[in-house]
Amino acid sequence: MTQNVKDERSELQIPAFFRQMLERKWLGDKTKGGFYKKVKGDKGKEDERMALDWKTLEYHPRQKPKFAALDMAKNVEETGARLRMLLGLDGAPQKPDKANTFLWAALSDLWTYSANRIPEISNSIVEIDRAMHLGFNWDLGPLNSGTPPASKPPSPA
Fold it and tell me: Is 129 left (phi over 0), alpha (psi -120 to 50) or beta?
């Protein structure tokens, strides 16, 4: 990928732990391991999902993280307001936490990538927003053109 992609992602490097996973053929359920691994439960018990510790490459019982910001966000109906709250952009000063730090890193890269693709794949931001809405069932497109998504693509003229 790094040889063929010539855009803002060109400096992407596969982390060392991921290379080790590839070498061990830990590719997912079909190879009996990956980021998660199923462990057969004893008779009458459910199978357990183990999570990979990327630092040690050892499996441990998975733990669901709890983030107060995500719990609060469940109570915000409007998508834009919920997103602004999660990113700490709603005017209320917030101390950065792992959730909004992760979301900002992931979403700001997505927004930049989407904006940079406009000349290659569409004539406007509206088309990218509609494609993301229709393709991934998102409430808002990455560029949030403000145009409500069409329920179906416009028919050719």
Answer: alpha
